Amino acid sequence: MSTALFRNTDYVNNKMLLHIGSALFNGFSFWMIGDSVSSMQLRLFTIFNFIFVAPGVINQLQPLFIERRSIYEQREKKSKMYSWVAFVTALVVSEIPYLCICAVLYFVCWYYTVGFPNDSSKAGPTFLIMLLYEFVYTGIGQFVAAYAPNATFAALVNPLIIGTLVSFCGVLVPYAEIQAFWRYWIYWMNPFNYLMGGLLVFDVWDTPVNCKKHELAIFNTPNGTTCLNYLADYMATTGANMNLLNPDATEGCEVCEYKQGSDYLKTLNLKEYYYGWRDVGIIAIFACSSYALVYLLMKLRTKASKKAE
């Protein structure tokens, strides 16, 4: 399988070019994101765009998987040359080097063009999450292909799965606004939720927020009191995350909505920094479970074909 994949230059080249093209388009669309309030939203959107490298690669992967499965079922399975476990393992393992290369290509082309932190404590975990995501969506594509009767059926199932995961990852609809029926199960079972959470925590949490002039709330205090005295009670409770730029002024008080990126992330249900490492672990579990489903569904298909015979 590794030799066959290495010789399939169309598949390998398209896979790599898709990652490079998507990363450059994403990176230069959000070139050197700043640190204003609106920039926090741009950081969210550029990370969200990373998700959409998956559909193109899955559409390349599945026809090849199903074609090889058909050859196995017609030849190796009937002649009992090797079992379906060896077949699936070969398909999974042969993809691993290319997944690692593609993760590196996307990371290098995207991470530095959008101006994310250069610290190894931020860039390292970000790359790890991106690498794990390569395994997650490849596993999703392969387990759909493992049981699908043909490539057309698999292509019809993909938008249903990806569309559902994208819709409930907390970006298109914030966590607080997701309907209760969906919020308490599908949100927490969604790998894209943890992908977004991990990347946002490592790349946004410690970012200082510097409001632009039009993003400031500007007002005058009554009776000549200072801005700090007037807002003291509010800042001790509801307004704990806001940044008062001129506390000693008695007029023209300037208030920024957030002090740093962590204040923005708390509105997205990301309340602590350790959520980033928690999400890394959960994504790793999703990667393993995706490949477990490849084996499970291939086993079910093998049993079904035996009954048909």
UniProtKB/TrEMBL annotation:
The entry's keywords? Membrane, Transmembrane, Transmembrane helix, Transport
Q: Where located?
A: Membrane
Ranges where the ABC-2 type transporter transmembrane domain occurs:
5-200
Q: Which GO terms describe its cellular component?
A: membrane
* A Pfam family that the UniProt record links to this protein: ABC2_membrane
**Ranges that cross the membrane:** 16-34, 40-61, 82-107, 127-148, 160-182, 280-298
Protein name from the UniProt record: ABC multidrug transporter atrF
Question: In what way does this protein cross or attach to the membrane?
Answer: Multi-pass membrane protein
Q: Which molecular function terms from Gene Ontology are attached?
A: ABC-type transporter activity
